[in-house]
Amino acid sequence: xxxxxxxxxxxxxxxxxxxxxxxxxxxxxxxxxxxxxxxxxxxxxxxxxxxxxxxxxxxxxxxxxxxxxxxxxxxxxxxxxxxxxxxxxxxxxxxxxxxxxxxxxxxxxxxxxxxxxxxxxxxxxxxxxxxxxxxxxxxxxxxxxxxxxxxxxxxxxxxxxxxxxxxxxxxxxxxxxxxxxxxxxxxxxxxxxxxxxxxxxxxxxxxxxxxxxxxxxxxxxxxxxxxxxxxxxxxxxxxxxxxxxxxxxxxxxxxxxxxxxxxxxxxxxxxxxxxxxxxxxxxxxxxxxxxxxxxxxxxxxxxxxxxxx
Length: 309
Prior knowledge:
The protein is α/β, with parallel strands linked by helices. Helices cover about 35% and strands about 20% of the residues. The protein has nine helices and ten strands. A six-stranded mixed sheet has the order 2-1-3-4-5-6. A four-stranded antiparallel sheet has the order 7-8-10-9, with helices on one face. α3 links the parallel β3 and β4 (about 90-95). α7 packs parallel to α9 and α8 crosses α9 (about 290-309).
């Protein structure tokens, strides 16, 4: 009996893909996770191996989901290689560009998402990389006819003769019906600031992230886990190598103290079972001096924990 194996995703892909598979009735088991390389990007060789394995098991692979800007590391899967694999096996190629969509605005970093133009569909979060307030998102498809797959006509809402008379109705393009006019704020931003202005903002946050990475690498109190393609840095306080400490516990303590005392809202995540701190730089007004100030506070709480323990 043939079964649908669903989507192939990086092990660093967003949890919403598994959630969506459950909503569709496929179940989370239909999402096949592909191991990443040292930069936490999907390994396209392992992707093809996994697809072949599913086919050999009598299953039907239907989609590949690449990530353009992972939540934890801000890194981008090899879109060109993945699109080639998807095309080879006749699979839908979707790109989750919720985080990395802003790279489309800049000439300097646009090359980082080469291959996105080969996708069948793309998700974007304008409230991440287009500097919009929550919520402002979009779902783009290569062929507008794909929207007919989710279109249902109701006489009281979007009668079919609206299409025949070319009367626009967003209900035909979304699962959601009642909505706010979220597109207005994006329209105003594009009109007032423009692509070049927004692109400059993107370049600024990437530059700040690179400078912050240098600070972390050059400070013996910290361990930087990985460089970012965009602006997310995963790191941890790891001073005093001459004593054995539970680094996860120290960094959990640091995060709680930062929040408790109102110093800074620093995110956290787990990698291979270990707790790390995380910067996700999205504000173009953030400076490297701001980052250094936060790092100094982190060191203060880290040293405080070591002294007590």
